[in-house]
Design a protein that fits this description.
Helix content: over 70%
Structural class: mainly alpha
Length: 95
């Protein structure tokens, strides 16, 4: 269990901090200045910070299983999820 938590924390932190190290590449790819991309990444961070506490407050009374069931159709609609599910022999939920 501890290993799973460690890997989840590592993955989350890597995904959240990776754009900071790639600002120049992102700016070049989007053909905008580095400060503009920095502002974009900062805007994302501020949005996540501002939305996380109210969202956690709203969701605290909802059972975890209910949240998971609510997300399943969204995941099942993604092509990569469907192909992985087919390879594993599972069928995505129908609804």
């Amino acid at each position: 269990m501890l290993t799973a938590l460690m890997l989840a924390a590592f993955t989350f932190n890597t995904a959240e901090n990776l754009p900071i190290g790639l600002l120049e590449l992102i700016a070049e790819s989007l053909r905008v200045s580095v400060p503009t991309v920095g502002l974009l990444v900062t805007g994302y961070g501020v949005t996540v910070a501002a939305a996380s506490v109210p969202l956690a407050h709203v969701m605290r009374g909802v059972a975890g299983r209910t949240c998971q069931q609510g997300l399943t159709p969204a995941r099942a609609s993604r092509p990569a999820y469907r192909s992985r599910a087919r390879r594993a022999g599972a069928q995505p939920p129908h609804g």
